[in-house]
Amino acid sequence: MSLHLVVGVDGSESSLRAVDWAADEATLHGAPLRIVHAYRWYRYEGTALARELGKPSGHVTPDDILVVATRRARRHHPDLSVTTEAVAEEPEYVLLHEARNAAAVIMGTRGRGELADLLLGSVSLTVATEAHCPVVVIRGSHDNRTTEGRRGRIVVGMADAPTAAVRFAYEEARRRGAALDAVRAWRCPAHDTADHPLLTGTPERLHEERAAKELEAALADAPSDVRLRRHTVEGPARRVLLTASHEADLLIVGRRRPGQFGHRLGRIAHTLLHHSACPIAVVPDTA
């Protein structure tokens, strides 16, 4: 990551947790951090930030939100290069514009209410679907610190060939000193039986062997300095990766490039964005 990182804030605790994560990530990569607040995002109604500022929540301004976010970013990284901007525009437009020149965009989830960690807001979903750079949505109830990950484990969902998501995962694992679990889900179609004339073994074994070969092909360019662990797991990819997210510090999945039918997020990434138990990075393919 040679470009800056962008984090979107709205004054909620969810977005400030995203600032914590983004500050760690920027420090890991030696990159500047840019904090952006689109103040049509929501009218600020929280109390935590207002208490920190010592003023009623109705008096919190966009500049106040940026001041607190900057303070959070430098709490553990006092020398981090931070720039800020408040923009009078819809957040989707602002963050997608910022994504054009960013190494990654980091966001919280919905931000407010008792279900803040369970529901994904439309802004996060739109940006993850359309951004030209990786988008990280901070989910889960852990401490959201990049440099002090509790699991020491990153998970990447594997496709049939090397992808931008896999290359992103290599870099994240290398910089964190974390193990990288490359997970390939496989399923045995119900119509496959041992009586099929082309099958010489059990259908399950043959499908698993094929998944293992596809996994090896997708990891063909794996760097030697990454602690790589290979997993082929039977089951729907969404279920397999959701289960893996409970023991990971970061889950990474790919997203297809925009084509003639517009942007494609895919059902797997869509489900994981809504339900992952840890931060999730959605990486658009560049091939």
Automatic annotation (TrEMBL):
Stored Gene3D superfamilies: HUPs (3.40.50.620)
Domain of life the protein comes from: Bacteria
Family: Belongs to the universal stress protein A family.
Name of the molecule in the record: Nucleotide-binding universal stress UspA family protein
Domain UspA residue range list: 4-139, 153-284
InterPro entries, A to Z: Rossmann-like_a/b/a_fold (IPR014729), Universal_stress_UspA (IPR006015), UspA (IPR006016)
Pfam families registered for this protein in UniProt: Usp (PF00582)
Taxonomic source organism: Streptomyces calvus
